[in-house]
Specification:
Blueprint (H helix, E strand, L loop, with lengths): L3 H25 L7 H12 L3 H7 L6 H14 L3 H9 L15 H8 L3 H9 L15 H8 L3 H11 L11 H10 L4 H14 L4 H10 L14 H6 L12 H9 L47 E6 L2 E5 L1 H7 L1 H4 L11 E3 L15 H13 L12 H10 L11 H10 L9 H11 L2 H15 L1
Parallel strand pairs: 1-3
Antiparallel strand pairs: 1-2
Helix pairs in contact: 2-4, 4-5, 4-6, 6-7, 6-8, 8-9, 10-11, 10-12, 14-21, 20-21
Length: 451
């Protein structure tokens, strides 16, 4: 409950605020020609956010010059963007006016107004130039950082949502620190702010100490580009792609960002694994054995090894059961007198309910022989079924982890054909197998779709 002293303190504070507002208005806009009553009216119009009050009182001001000056004052102290919009679009005040010190409505808004929506309106709708500087060479960005009590929100808007020139000249390193740690929506501008800060605050010992405290707190996902590798070492920041960096932390840091990041996929190195010549290569067959009998080398041992979706598949059982990890682990304790029936199903995903087409099973079997698979041979509508099958039956040379980078290249080249791909399934694969590169690719895909 308010006491009499509380009310008195509040009244004094409001009075002091009004005095400060008027002094600021005099400093930038108005002269001393107004009497006390009119001054109070101007202060209210410039700072009162009530649209009812505005509609009832703005008509009392008849002089266009005063109306233009009030617009400038509103840009400084009125956080209701609708009122400012009415002044520009209905009252027809001059939004392109400049003070004797070279300040525009946008300059003054960046200097004083706490609502970034006012700055946004002046830039986007009123076409104000965010790179304008006053007679002292102070830009909109510097005005915000030097003087605005809500500088962080204003600076973040100018950085992430505009192309305004940025400078940290004479700005304390702690302010730069709050800004750099807050950037989540624009990777390119993050790098610009980081470079400016590293250059500006590497001169004095106290600033270098600030860098030692600030840089290690930056989201490490923002430092994964090749040009930033030195920072990871210099400031003892663990590389997110290091095998010891937990996947759950990788996901947390990635999900915390609302911008696309470079996927540092290394150049793949093709390793040709020699096939054991003492064991006959696999023969891949599907459908009826007689249908393909002319393609089989009769010297190679072959038999019906498994059945999938009602179709028979023939191969060298020794190779198959030594390569498919599931069977390799149990082949010494079980006899495979009967063909194995391979399962297929949704795994909790409705769009995986259809079995793999026969050509996919043949590709999978062929990879046992060649030790590699070309994902580009897979039709886009079948890629998730292929991944589900590989997930169920990984081999020594073909598993979800082993095809991570090839999978990213596949999706990059098949972007149009894979519009309907379910990212939820890929996220599940990435999380289970620690596929950091794929998870980052998915993150970028989601950013593109939301944009």
């Amino acid at each position: 409950m308010w006491s009499h002293d509380d009310e008195k303190t509040k009244a004094m504070s409001e009075s002091e605020d009004r005095i400060w507002i008027w002094k600021s208005l005099q400093r930038h806009i108005f002269d001393n020609q107004y009497d006390g009553l009119y001054v109070g009216h101007i202060i209210e119009l410039c700072s009162n956010q009530c649209e009812v009050f505005f509609n009832q009182n703005i008509g009392l001001v008849k002089d266009q010059k005063t109306l233009d000056q009030i617009l400038m004052g509103m840009c400084m102290f009125n956080q209701n963007v609708n009122i400012i919009k009415q002044m520009v679009e209905c009252v027809r005040c001059n939004v392109n006016q400049i003070t004797s010190e070279g300040q525009t409505p946008l300059s003054l808004a960046c200097r004083h107004n706490k609502n970034h929506c006012v700055i946004q309106y002046l830039i986007v709708d009123s076409m104000q130039d965010p790179d304008h500087t006053d007679i002292y060479g102070t830009s909109c960005f510097l005005n915000a950082c030097y003087f605005n009590r809500n500088y962080l929100l204003i600076a973040m808007y100018l950085i992430e949502s505009t192309d305004a020139k940025i400078s940290f000249r004479c700005i304390p390193s702690n302010k730069w620190g709050k800004i750099i740690l807050g950037i989540k929506n624009n990777f390119e501008r993050f790098n610009q702010v980081l470079d400016l800060g590293l250059k500006e605050y590497d001169q004095e010992e106290c600033d270098r100490e600030s860098l030692n405290l600030i840089v290690p707190r930056i989201n490490p996902m923002l430092l994964i580009s090749r040009s930033r590798r030195d920072l990871l070492t210099k400031y003892c920041i663990r590389d997110p792609f290091d095998n010891m960096f937990p996947m759950k932390d990788f996901i947390k840091f990635t999900d915390d960002l609302n911008c696309s990041l470079p996927v540092p996929v290394p150049v793949p190195i093709t390793v040709h694994v020699p096939i054991n010549t003492s064991v006959s290569p696999i023969t891949v067959l599907s459908l009826d054995q007689d249908e393909n009998i002319d393609k089989i080398d009769s010297m190679r041992p072959r038999s019906l090894v498994f059945v999938y979706n009602g179709d028979n598949y023939y191969a060298d059982p020794e190779i198959v059961f030594n390569e498919i990890i599931l069977f390799k682990e149990i082949k010494d304790i079980l006899r495979f007198d009967e063909p194995v029936v391979l399962s297929c199903g949704s795994g909790g995903y409705d769009y995986l309910s259809s079995p793999c087409p026969k050509y996919l099973i043949n590709l999978w079997l062929g990879s046992i022989d060649t030790k590699e698979i070309n994902l580009m041979e897979i039709e886009p509508q079948d890629i998730l079924s292929a991944l589900d099958h590989i997930d169920r039956y990984p081999t020594e040379s073909l598993s979800i982890k082993l095809i991570e980078h090839q999978l990213i290249r596949y999706f990059d080249q098949m972007t149009t054909e894979c519009q309907s791909i379910c990212l939820k399934y890929l996220i599940d694969l990435s999380s289970r197998y620690g596929l950091k590169y794929l998870y980052l690719w998915i993150h970028n895909q989601k950013i593109r779709e939301s944009g």
